[in-house]
Design goal:
Length: about 550
């Protein structure tokens, strides 16, 4: 059993605050939650909403319909009421006709708490009543989150929540919520998970220029900077940011930057510089629809090919694309580990959907566990920075650490000095490109979920993990065998391992149908598979409207 609660109104009306309050209180009750947002690129006005889906079992996706709609503006009601389930309930801030519940949320908050800011507590109390839940867990949660503000503020919020529940008494139990387990669950967002993963891996320098949807990771790292010993710098632009990170990594400091597609465009020359200098820079790219500014607060998977081919010249890189907050945590660490082991740039691809979603997640370890930077403690007397090795990985020493560490952005020799020797250039280029073989050998294989004998397989990457998983469950519930293969590492790929996972070789029964689920218009990952040497007919199941996939929509579009 699951329900979808939708809080809708203008930017600045407390949509996020009310949604966040419900997420926290319901998770404390032991309900599984999956929360996601839809918002316009406006500081004030527009139509935004915050969905909180709850259930008595794990959730993987959002839903199109709402079972309870809290409309903070009449315009929100007019737009979203058609998407309320027939058995659902509607709460409107103000007078309401046609079977919905009208509660003057802001007015009640001012009367009971002295400020209309507390309208979120009134709304949360009303929602609890409509769901038939006891108010105590909400009251207890309000006591926790307002503890620092003292008993007076706590008391006012209690009164607001209680009055909201009283005013919703006529709708009490109208929509029955799933039964809570009583065992609190931990909730994490993609943003928090990436930030914590990087912090525990020992990142010590972050330089960024704010750009949605990556800014949350930047500000999260700033919030834990003292706890983990991180220097955080808001650069004047993205060009400065990537060059600061390049300088930091040259000095031996684990460092990263955060940006989106437009900012990454400005970083491309610096990325190529890092490729030539073999610097372990890590770049978080939070995708959103383009081209140009596009839809800055919506979601997309449109920058995969850009991330793969960005930069003049040829140099190796690894690209990771987490699908859940738990994956985001581990892949942030792996991105830093890979960058330092192979001395090459690594890109972490997220998007607005993954950044903003909140879902119950196993507790993430906040212990500082620094990665191995693979730095020589005592360089030999004949040390040269770019010594040619079979793996392409040269022994790395730090400048000022007892050996000369010379580097140049031009073609250079093993000792780092500029050269016009064409044979030396080819030798060093071959050395750099050899790293791809090692990275491919260690590549994360796709995660399979579903029926072993499925004849239909969803091929997905990044944030489509959850919606595809729910789609598989929906198809199996109908008696349709289905499975999914999710790629959290999208480059480089171990082509042989991928072919075996897809049933294209190795004696495994080959599925009849592959469907590529991607948030873009061209099927970019299907192109990457072909580039990696995996030849398979992948039918496109694409979406590029800026909204995230849902499991129900994917299941419907398979035609099964």
């Amino acid at each position: 059993m699951d329900l979808n609660l939708r809080i809708a109104g203008e930017a600045g009306q407390g949509v996020q605050t009310t949604g966040g309050l419900l997420v926290g209180a319901l998770a404390e009750m032991g309900l599984h939650v999956f929360a996601m947002q839809s918002y316009m690129s406006r500081i004030r006005g527009g139509l935004n909403w915050f969905d909180v889906r709850i259930a008595d079992e794990p959730l993987w996706s959002g839903r199109r319909e709402a079972d309870v709609l809290v409309a903070l503006r009449p315009e929100a009601l007019a737009t979203l009421q058609p998407h309320v389930a027939k058995t659902g309930a509607v709460i409107l801030d103000g007078e309401c006709r046609d079977g919905c519940l009208g509660i003057p949320l802001a007015k009640v908050a001012k009367e009971m708490g002295g400020s209309d800011v507390m309208a979120n507590a009134v709304a949360a109390g009303a929602v609890f009543a409509v769901l038939g839940y006891d108010l105590k867990p909400l009251v207890d949660y309000l006591s926790v989150i307002f503890k620092k503000k003292g008993p007076e503020v706590i008391g006012k919020n209690h009164r607001c929540a209680e009055e909201g529940a009283r005013l919703a008494a006529s709708f009490a139990g109208r929509v029955r919520g799933p039964k809570p387990s009583g065992r609190p669950v931990t909730v994490a967002s993609g943003t928090e998970a990436v930030g914590l993963g990087a912090a525990t891996a020992g990142v010590k320098f972050v330089a960024s220029y704010p750009m949605t949807p990556s800014t949350g990771v930047f500000t999260y790292l700033a919030s834990v900077a003292d706890a983990y010993g991180i220097v955080v710098e808001q650069a004047e632009d993205e060009i400065a940011a990537i060059n600061m990170v390049a300088g930091a990594t040259y000095a031996g400091v684990p460092a990263m930057t955060t940006t989106s597609g437009g900012g990454f465009s400005l970083m491309v020359e610096g990325l190529s510089l890092a490729g030539m200098l073999e610097l372990p820079v890590v770049i978080l790219v939070g995708q959103r629809p383009g081209p140009a500014t596009g839809l800055p607060t919506r979601t997309a998977q449109q920058d995969l090919l850009f991330a793969l081919h960005a930069g003049h010249g040829e140099f190796p890189r690894a690209i990771f694309a987490p699908g859940t907050p738990e994956q985001a945590y581990h892949l942030a660490r792996r991105a830093l580990e890979t960058a330092h082991k192979f001395q090459t740039p690594v890109i972490l691809l997220t998007d607005q959907f993954l950044a903003d979603l909140q879902v119950d997640t196993p507790p993430l370890d906040g212990t500082l566990r620094p990665i191995d930077r693979h730095i020589l403690a005592s360089p030999p007397p004949d040390y040269v920075r770019y010594a040619v090795t079979a793996s392409g990985i040269s022994p790395r020493a730090l400048p000022g650490g007892g050996a000369p560490v010379v580097l140049d952005s031009d073609a250079h020799t093993e000792d780092g000095h500029i050269t016009e020797d064409l044979e030396a250039h080819v030798r060093l280029q071959d050395k750099r490109m050899a790293k791809l073989k090692g990275m491919a050998a260690e590549a994360l294989g796709p995660e399979r979920y579903g029926d072993e004998e499925a004849e239909t397989i969803l091929i997905c990457w990044g944030s489509t993990y959850g919606p595809c998983r729910e789609a598989v469950d929906r198809l199996r519930a109908k008696g349709e065998p289905a499975a999914m293969l999710h790629f959290s590492q999208v480059w480089p790929l171990d082509a042989g391992a991928v072919r075996r996972a897809m049933g294209l070789e190795g004696g495994v029964k080959r599925p009849k149908r592959f469907l590529g689920v991607e948030g873009n218009a061209t099927g970019q990952f299907a192109i990457v598979l072909r580039e990696a040497g995996v030849e398979a007919a992948v039918e496109p199941l694409l979406q590029c409207d800026g909204m995230p996939f849902t499991g129900e929509a994917i299941a419907e579009r398979t035609g099964l």
